[in-house]
Amino acid sequence: DVQLQASGGGLVQAGGSLRLSCTASGFTFEDHAIGWFRQAPGKEREGVSCFLSRDGTTYYIPSVEGRFTLSRDNAKNTVHLLMNSLQAEDTAVYYCAAVQYPFFCSVGEVDYWGQGTQVTVSS
User: Fold this and answer.
1) Quick one: which of 28, 39, 83, 110 has the fewest CB in 10 Å?
2) Pairing relation of β-strands 112-113 and 78-83?
3) What tens digit of pLDDT does each residue of 64-81 get?
4) Which residues have CB under 8 Å from 9's CB, separation 6+?
């Protein structure tokens, strides 16, 4: 079965860091793009950071560019999202997702969703 297991969320003070991890199984990891989405209470789910193509091109929503870093470890079938300088506005449930390339980091494209991991940033 297809599985996307997200981990790494938690409670952190503003200015701190967290690293989210998404480990995949049940499909050909190298043939799929992985991205991170988030949803805050009362708001729509939005793409945060995604691999867009096989050459490693990445997308970051402007509010996180320069603070968040997306990386991929094919040997471990894992994608990480390093989140630095966290702000209260980053508080949300974060989801990892997979889709066959290409990917434009939109909700409608997603083939597989992982479970959410809660990120809470205190001000």
Assistant:
1) 28
2) unpaired
3) 999 999 999 989 999 999
4) 18, 20, 94, 117, 118, 119, 120
Torsion angle in degrees (nearest 10) through CA of 49, 12, 90, 101: 10
What residue type is assigned to position 16 of the chain? G
Cα torsion angle, 50, 4, 28, 30, sign: positive
Region at 8 (left for phi over 0; alpha for psi -120 to 50; beta for the rest): left
Quickly list DSSP for the chain: --EEEEE--EEEETT--EEEEEEEESS-GGGEEEEEEEE-TTS--EEEEEE-STT--EEE-TTTBTTEEEEEEGGGTEEEEEE-S--GGG-EEEEEEEEESP----GGG-SEE---EEEEEE-
